[in-house]
Amino acid sequence: MRNTRARRPQPAIRQAKADENNRGDLVRRKAPRTADANEWHSNKAALGQPSVVRRKPAAAATPDEAAQPPQARKAPVTRAKKLAVRAGSQKEVARQKQLREKRLTPAQIGEERLQKALAFSGWGSRREVETWIAQGKVTVNGAVAELGCKIKPGDDVRVAGKRVQLRWPDRLPRVLLYHKQEGELVTRDDPQGRVTVFDRLPKLASSKWIAIGRLDFNTSGLLLFTTSGDLANHMTHPRFEIEREYAVRILGELTDEQMKAFKDGITLEDGPARFERIEATGGEGANHWYNAVLKEGRNREVRRMFEHFGLTVSRLIRVRFGMFGLPPRLKRGQFYELNETEVLAVMKWSGLKLNGEAKE
């Protein structure tokens, strides 16, 4: 597979050090006060539109509106650029086209849980759909549906009396590698109007991107997205023990006893935690870099493990997730979408069907 093999974290560390030399440490430096405004004006200029906007006087707020917390206005966000790669041989291109056009038959698709089929078709989240089913608003072939029931292609499914045009996962899912930047949230919406990774990604017409795991606000590096919920579950569920590898810069230096304690396991407020492997990879002055691998992804786990010994993580970069390594050419804010042959290899590695569903 191109650009997806696990690599050592040195390129990411070299880039991080270059960033510090060129622009200063992102943790310590202050962001420009007009960063959002500058981005907004540059976007307007690129579109050939005036950057001056005349607004109408705001209407007086009603008592109910005044009681609500203010909603931050989000500035226009620049979409991430796609990493350009050379096309493969004629044989590879032909194989990719064949996989792109391949569809499973209704018999091969089989039955699917009702809430999953409705969510996949864009009718809402699984939790929302389950609520509608519990309220008796969903029918299947004229009968009121029950939680857990299964449907197949050709069934008459209606929500509040309206027939649903279902979409079925009958083709290869899409998989995307994104180099997340510091200052981006892994969420679909933020009340404060901050930039989210979903603002950066290319839009999908018939499905939606599912984030495989998360990275916190101040963490950068490899973030995976897919249109297959089963693939996302396989990559993130604790029982599969998929490795995550990080390049960690701390203020200070670990002792031999602390390195051993990390491998043996320490206790955090939400349970035990340990690194599968951890090794020093260099550093200058008060800053030292480490390469750390663990098999779970709890909230801020890496940072909290170092804080256990009173050490501050000043830079954190994810450089690998399972079989996917952060490609050296993938710059921050860029994405690379796997081609069909690469996605097929991912399905085989994950033990999933061609369409990304779990095997029986």
TrEMBL record:
- Membrane-crossing residues? none
- Family matches, as SMART domains: S4 (SM00363)
Q: Does the keyword RNA-binding apply?
A: yes
Its EC number(s): 5.4.99.-
Q: Does the keyword Isomerase apply?
A: yes
- List the biased-composition ranges (Basic and acidic residues): 16-28, 92-103
Alphabetized, the UniProt keywords read: Isomerase, RNA-binding
Q: Where is the RNA-binding S4 domain?
A: 112-173
The record's listing under InterPro entries reads: PsdUridine_s_RsuA/RluB/E/F_cat, PsdUridine_synth_cat_dom_sf, PsdUridine_synth_RsuA/RluA, PsdUridine_synth_RsuA/RluB/E/F, PsdUridine_synth_RsuA/RluB_CS, RsuA_PseudoU_synthase, S4_RNA-bd, S4_RNA-bd_sf
Where does the record place Low complexity bias?
58-72
Q: Could you tell me which residues belong to the region Disordered?
A: 1-77, 84-103
Q: Which family does it belong to?
A: Belongs to the pseudouridine synthase RsuA family.
UniProt name for this protein: Pseudouridine synthase
Taxonomic source organism = Chitiniphilus purpureus
